[in-house]
Specification:
Chain lengths: 272, 472
């Protein structure tokens, strides 16, 4: 059992929970994720580690309440317990050897972006962060990102804050004017695909972090399989980050829809 | 007195009922049935059955105790060699082991050793008999006191190693990646074949020996082998199993509706999707399902699909009837439950519609020349492709060793297929690190994994105590 030490609402439906998990805090590096089960009857859900501190042994996760399990998680308060928590899982990101890096986060993908921004900030690279949201009150982690980035751009779909439009518009501008050697994109699949399409003709190394459906998260079931460069890989152990230009986004999108009806059904049931 | 030539039959739940529930299929012997069966044992002096058992359970002795009405003693006799008798009585392939060499079996049916083992184990579990320490059977070493040994993986190999090491007197901790113990016993073998409360009870008995079990801990990720040694563990047993599912590598395998057997069974067993929506993990199954493969895993997947409401369930297997690797009882039960066997058929592609499985293209085969394994190799019959319409495909063609630990541990030698390399003592390329079970042999059986756990425990004991590594 893992006690919730703090809970914060970053934006409507986007929450941050901090738990004590010293072994995980000790081992996590940017890009790793954990799997948790809220209670004994819960699903195993993968969530990126949003922040971690070796000193205090604390681990934070940020999630958007999109389905039954994340809503249940969001209904917990400080002092409540999470039944199971395992990690860190997946490969971390290699961060050395880049000069100028652009990191894009869309929606709650921004939360997943934060540890990577922090990691690159500690490397020698110049860090440009672009974060997007539908509207102003869904913009999260602005201060934190600003602190760790050399430049921060914000875009909103409705123009209520920052650039009016998509994160990819901002990226396009940057790519036209500057020499960038790595792009990292995390967010909804269409956004990641748009980024991949934009950088591929330029030959710019681009990494996306995939949010496949998972069960065990340790390479045991293959639920998370994705096609990378024509080969089947398991997101949980081979990823979650992959070369964006090799990802079969169409297949990924299809696989993500498989349990949609069940998800709706579960949501209709009460969260107790 | 003339002995009954046939095994005392086991009463089973009726097929037409059991395909609608997940309750255990065989009911187990009553006291009366057990006595009738125990009577059939010839009490041979040379005891071939004991040698047929990978952990050498003193079979004639425990059957004798059953006959004498002392079922608790029978339990102690079994437990001196086998820490998980209620499990083994249910899932061991007895027909290839003890029962295969049973003298009674030369002219008649062999003694139903597995069923008797189950009877003894259940009798004692139900009555919650205190585990009586029998000093002749378990040796405790004072030199073991306070010395830490780590066990990785809470499957049958790890659990057995841990139990024996604890009996020797070591301070044992098991590290398990999942949120539950049991390994395949929990996530793979379904409730109707191995009720999970049996696994719980057996695991609790091992906990009572003083074994500490740390769940949600992936060795290689959460903590490394080197860190465990630095933490004061003096030796380690790795029993991480063979859980990495193999796929066919045919077109269409990543369509929605194609599962590995591991995913399908894990959803249903470990995550209890058969109780969805009470339990929150879903599993989607269509009216027509094909399971590719014919081992225990395939039978389990097919029978599970049936219970989840599939109308037609096919076993599609490229070899012939006599080559099916599953236990006889599982094949028999599957047939009774209306599973349709399409043998000598090889899947070559899965076709989809709107991203979901719509059909599977299959190639008919015939048996040709013998291959290296001595089995006649299936070869395609020209012009005999056909299409099976269905909505779910479950791939059950085998698993490879779990790679997470080996990938993240330095200087641990592995075979080309991923298994951990060990010497005759089950020691790996790293001193003090032993391994056994499916991670060494590739997917095998519960009892072989237990046998390896047992041998490794004895060797670890020798390594730490007899061979001068005493309290350095
Ligand atoms: C569906 C199915 C049906 C079967 N039916 C039968 C049968 O009827 N009879 C029979 O004899 N055999 C059967 N088998 C085979 C049998 O279950 C296995 O041979 C046996 O369980 C192997 O035991 P093990 O302890 O080596 O590994 P496992 O049971 O696989 O246990 C390994 C454990 O290690 C854990 N682990 C893996 N990596 C790590 C890590 N890095 N850190 C921590 N923990 C880790 C895993 O989570 C798992 O709990 C069946 C197998 C399956 C899949
Ligand atoms: S989640 Fe099971 S293999 Fe990746």
């Amino acid at each position: 059992m893992y006690e919730i030490l703090a809970k914060e609402e970053l934006a409507p439906t986007i929450k941050k929970i901090t738990v004590k998990a010293p072994l995980i805090a000790e081992k996590t590096r940017p890009g790793n994720f954990i799997i948790l089960r809220v209670n004994e009857k819960g699903e195993r859900i993968p969530l990126t580690v949003a922040d971690y501190d070796k000193e205090t042994g604390q681990v934070a996760i940020i999630f958007q309440e999109v389905g039954y399990s994340t809503k249940l998680l969001g209904s917990l308060d400080k002092g409540d317990h999470i039944h199971d928590l395992v990690g860190p899982l997946g490969h971390h990101l290699e961060m050395e050897g880049y000069k100028k890096v652009v990191l894009l986060g869309g929606g709650s993908g921004t939360a997943l972006l934060y540890p990577k921004v922090k990691g690159f900030a500690e490397s020698d690279a110049e860090v440009i962060t672009i974060t997007g949201a539908r509207t102003k009150n869904l913009v999260i982690l602005e201060e934190e990102l600003r602190k760790k980035s050399d430049r921060l751009y914000i875009s909103t779909d409705d123009g209520s804050y920052g650039h009016h439009g998509f994160v990819t518009d901002v990226l396009k501008d940057i790519l036209e004017n500057e020499e960038v050697d790595l792009v990292v994109a995390i967010g909804p699949v269409p956004m990641m695909r748009a980024v991949a399409n934009m950088t591929e003709p330029e030959g710019i190394e681009t990494i996306v972090s995939l949010n496949s459906i998972m069960v065990d998260g340790t390479g045991m079931c293959g639920a998370c399989r994705v096609t990378i460069g024509g080969e089947t890989k398991f997101t949980c152990v081979d990823g979650p980050a992959f070369d964006a230009h090799q990802v079969d986004f169409e297949e990924l999108m299809n696989r993500l829809t498989f349990y949609q009806n069940e998800e709706n059904m579960a949501e209709e049931m009460e969260v107790d | 007195m003339a002995k009954n030539p046939n095994k005392t039959p086991m009463r089973n739940q009726k097929p037409e009922e059991r395909i609608h529930n997940f309750n255990e299929v065989p009911y187990g012997y009553s006291e009366e049935e057990a006595l009738v069966e125990a009577e059939r044992c010839l009490q041979c002096k040379h005891q071939p059955c004991v040698k047929g058992c990978p952990v050498e359970v003193p079979i004639p002795e425990f059957i004798d105790a059953v006959l004498a009405g002392d079922v608790e003693k029978a339990d102690r006799i079994i437990k001196s060699k086998n820490n998980l008798p209620a499990v083994c009585g249910r899932v061991c392939p007895q027909e290839e082991q003890c029962e295969e060499v049973c003298v009674m079996g030369i002219k008649n049916e062999p003694v139903a050793i597995g069923r008797l083992e189950r009877y003894v184990a259940d009798y004692n579990l139900e009555r919650e008999c205190e585990p009586v320490e029998d000093k002749d059977m378990v040796t405790t070493y004072p030199e073991a006191k306070g010395r830490k040994v780590a066990v990785v993986g809470a499957g049958p190999a790890g659990l057995t190693a841990a139990a024996d090491l604890a009996k020797y007197g070591f301070d044992v901790t098991i590290f398990e990646a999942l949120h539950e113990t049991g390994g395949v016993l929990r996530y793979g073998i379904p409730e109707f074949r191995l009720p999970k409360n049996i696994v719980d009870k057996e695991v609790n008995a091992i906990r009572e020996l003083g074994v500490d079990i740390k769940l949600n801990t992936v060795v290689g990720k959460t903590i490394t082998v080197d860190e465990l040694f630095a933490d004061g563990f003096e030796a380690m047993f790795i029993g991480t199993g063979a859980g990495l599912p193999r796929f066919l590598n045919i077109p269409g395998e990543n369509l929605n509706g194609v599962y590995s057997a591991n995913e399908f069974l894990t959803r249903v067993n470990l995550m209890k999707a058969y109780k969805y929506p009470e339990y929150k993990t879903p599993v989607i199954i269509s009216d027509k399902v094909a399971v590719v493969g014919a081992g225990n895993v395939a039978m389990d997947a097919a029978r599970t699909a049936k219970r989840l409401g599939a109308e037609e369930v096919y076993i599609v297997y490229r070899r012939a009837e006599e080559q099916m690797p599953a236990r006889d009882e599982e094949i028999e039960h599957a047939k009774e439950e209306g599973i349709i066997f399409k043998l000598l058929n090889n899947p070559i592609a899965i076709h989809g519609k709107d991203g979901r499985v719509a059909s599977m293209e299959v190639q008919e085969m015939e048996l040709g020349e013998k291959d290296d394994s001595g089995r006649r190799r299936p070869v395609p019959i020209e012009g005999s492709k056909w299409e099976l319409e269905l909505g779910t495909v479950i791939i059950a063609i085998g698993q490879s060793p779990n790679p997470l630990l080996t990938r993240n541990t330095k200087n641990l030698k592995t075979e080309f297929w991923g298994g951990i390399t060990v010497d005759d003592n089950l020691q790996t390329s790293r001193e003090g690190v032993y391994a056994g079970g499916d991670v060494v042999t590739g997917a095998a059986t519960v009892i072989k994994a237990m046998g390896a756990g047992k041998d490794a425990a004895a060797n670890i004991k020798d390594y730490l105590i007899s061979e001068g590594k005493k309290n350095e």
